[in-house]
Amino acid sequence: MEFNIALLRGDGIGPEIVDSAVDVLKKTAEKFGHKFNFTPYLIGGAAIDETGKSLPDETVEGCLASDSVLLGSVGGPKWDSQPPSNRPEKALLGIRAALGLFTNLRPAKLYSALKEASPLRADIAEKGFDIMIVRELTGGIYFGERGRRNGENGEEAYDTECYSKMEIERIAKVAFETAMKRNKNVISIDKSNVLESSRLWRETVHEMAKDYPEVTLTDMLVDNAAMQIVKNPAQFDVIVTSNMFGDILSDEASQVTGSIGMLPSASLGATKRGMYEPIHGSAPDIAGQNIANPIATILSASMMLRYSFDLEKEADAIDNAVNKFLELGFRTADLAGNTGVKTLSTTEVTEKILELL
Ligand code: NAD
Questions:
Q1: What is the value of pTM for the model shown?
Q2: Which of 233, 291, 301, 322 is packed most tightly, with the most Cβ within 10 A?
């Protein structure tokens, strides 16, 4: 099969980690008889330097014309004085909106080889976990009506959580479809003991569940979920939740893996086209030193194969190569910490993973 991939390398370590993932994609294409065409576009600080705009029109058009988008990371101190409307990070919101991406998929997986990196108690980390958080990305309180007014006690401010049935249905569909590709278990997180929007959320998710009889659906209140992620993370397969709850819980879940350089993400919309990127930033402190961990970006590329191109075997091959890499004891500087283990450079990691593919 043939696919066109837009590359947004961005700033800081972005170019290094995207190039590493591209090498892995090229090798995967060769091994399985596919053709991936890569076209780079400017975004973030690099785009400001070249064109004056953090999100040039050409980038948006190129991404819209592609089958999927692979992004490194944007931002850095050099562009911190840009006006808010032209900050590198603003380009991310712009490209997500232009591509109509309403879902954020964030896996939080504790690799057995990296259990020591987790801040969780050893007996909990020992069981491992592999959670996929499906977060609604374009609705809820971050986008609802807000304002300031004079109330009974003087000045007050308000934000509104509002979800339409349509918005809940489309995110629930993503969660159930995702669960069908995994362990067929969805936990829907809400605050339906207090919020009306959560009651509509719960009702709608249950209606949608009828179309997926193989999937087990459970409800959980968000305060309990925040506890369960540290108490018994192994119970989760797919989590589906609203924008704000997902924002908070996905950060919590990623932190308990203990390794930010390992975590990929996907943003999806109504079409197969998605945008795939590591969850970490542009790490300006280590940019250009060939020591960044490219694994989060390599795993983002694997998610692209799985979720946008339906290339399951190919995605498994990349995930297995990463797993083997870790099992063999190879480490990047961020994973080794102060253990004294010899660490590999970005290019050495890439070479090892290519060998293991
Ligand atoms: P960061 O994620 O870039 O870095 C935090 C720490 O983690 C740093 O010490 C860094 O060296 C380390 N780190 C991150 N990724 C790593 C990797 N792959 N390998 C090894 N170490 C890694 O967060 P920050 O320092 O808060 O932000 C730096 C810049 O990135 C800022 O301009 C910020 O706005 C931007 N940012 C961009 C995105 C994005 O592009 N999606 C996300 C978050 C932050």
A1: 0.91
A2: 301
